[in-house]
């Protein structure tokens, strides 16, 4: 059984290795953004985002909404897993985006009780000016080694990722031997999304990846089916829910956010 094999592997790793600060370094990836285009779109991706603003003040808003939050120069702004796309606007965008695994939401937002959906917080006057500063600060600010991630949540997320979001929630809670309400409670209380939302976001990101790879050889309809959607209407409905635009209109105006060179640095 897949879950049993994962547990055996995890236990073996814990027994044979000393858990050090490597726990933190295995939990994130980094992207460095610098552009004078003025706008950057963050598509929901089931990760925590720690954004260090190195440029002019950034105005952050939820797609389709007018209310903005300002991320000041030098400010560290941490966002939990988001259920909607985010717009970042500035005359001169320059920021570092650290993407952290969703299972660490409770560690980072430990003081927020109960856990709030679409959580975010800002930390100012930290005097962080580089990727190295950001890594050092987050590594020492949270007790990564002592934090116990929720095993059931980890396994549920692993199943969703393994299936690229194309799995029924019923299959997950039956596989794990728990009730539907227990599974939903794990997701809501630990990361602020429902299991179904998490799966839909995973499938959306599969589409985004496929669009970047196959846009020249496949049309949107073909990409829809390749990404696990059974028909276009479901895809369009999900896309509008997360991005407040139809897929066609989004890619007409914002395709560059799916086509940018991959500057991701996977920590090891």
Output the structural class: alpha+beta
Helix content: 40-55%
Q: Tell me which oligomeric state these chains represent.
A: single chain
Largest sheet: 6 strands, antiparallel
CATH architecture of the largest domain: Sandwich
- Strand segment tally: 10
Features:
Jelly Rolls, 44% helix, four-stranded antiparallel sheet, 18% strand, disordered C terminus, alpha+beta, 268 residues, 2 domains, Arc Repressor Mutant, subunit A
Write structural notes for this entry.
The protein folds into two domains: 22-145, Jelly Rolls, CATH 2.60.120; 151-259, Orthogonal Bundle (Arc Repressor Mutant, subunit A), CATH 1.10.10.60. It is built from twelve helices and ten strands. The chain has helices spanning 2-16, 22-25, 105-108, 131-141, 151-162, 169-176, 180-191, 195-214, 220-226, 232-243, 247-254, 256-259, and strands spanning 28-35, 39-42, 48-53, 58-62, 68-71, 76-79, 86-89, 93-100, 120-123, 265-266. Strands 9-6-3-8-1-10 form a six-stranded antiparallel sheet, with no helix packed on it. It has a four-stranded antiparallel sheet with strand order 2-7-4-5, with no helix packed on it. Helix 5 (151-162) packs parallel to helix 8 (195-214).
């Amino acid at each position: 059984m897949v879950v049993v094999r994962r547990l055996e592997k995890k236990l073996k790793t814990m027994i044979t290795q000393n858990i050090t600060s490597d726990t933190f370094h295995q939990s994130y990836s980094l992207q460095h953004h610098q552009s004078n285009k003025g706008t950057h779109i963050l598509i929901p991706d089931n990760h925590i985002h720690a954004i260090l603003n190195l440029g002019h003040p950034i105005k952050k808003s939820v797609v389709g909404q007018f209310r903005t939050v300002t991320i000041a120069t030098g400010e560290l702004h941490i966002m939990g897993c988001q259920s909607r796309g985010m717009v970042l606007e500035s005359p001169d965008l320059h920021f570092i985006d650290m993407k952290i695994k969703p299972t660490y939401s409770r560690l980072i937002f430990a003081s927020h009780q109960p856990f709030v959906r679409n959580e975010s917080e800002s930390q100012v006057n930290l005097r962080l000016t580089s990727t190295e500063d950001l890594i050092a600060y987050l590594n020492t600010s949270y007790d990564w080694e002592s934090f116990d991630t929720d095993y059931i949540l980890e396994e549920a997320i692993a199943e969703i990722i393994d299936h690229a979001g194309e799995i029924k929630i019923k299959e997950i809670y039956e596989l794990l031997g728990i009730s539907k309400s227990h599974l939903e409670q794990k997701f809501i209380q630990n990361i602020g999304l429902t299991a179904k939302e998490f799966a839909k976001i995973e499938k959306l990101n599969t589409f985004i990846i496929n669009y970047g790879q196959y846009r020249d050889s496949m049309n949107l309809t073909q990409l829809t089916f390749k990404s696990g959607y059974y028909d276009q209407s479901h895809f369009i409905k999900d896309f509008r829910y997360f991005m407040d635009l139809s897929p066609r209109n989004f890619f007409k105006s914002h395709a560059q956010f799916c086509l940018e060179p991959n500057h991701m640095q996977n920590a090891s």
